[in-house]
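Supplementary Text 2. Reproducibility record for the structural model of the 67-residue chain.

All settings were left at their defaults, and a single model was retained for analysis rather than an ensemble. We include the record here because the model underlies the residue-level annotations in Supplementary Table 4.
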Amino acid sequence: MFQRLIFEDSAALFTIAAFITAVSIYGTIGWRALRMKRPQVDHFANLPFAAATPPARHDTDTTDHAH
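Retained model, structure tokens:
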């Protein structure tokens, strides 16, 4: 009976520790994002479009090839 009680307490402790760890990681990321300088925000906003991307290779032939 006491082994189960000790296990449940340690499980709750690990759950709380994991929650605190996750909150601190996401809180730090959010805090850093909110305090980011405007030039860096603009740089990150244009980052995917900074280099020319190759055109997509779609089949432009609209005729039906089914026989």
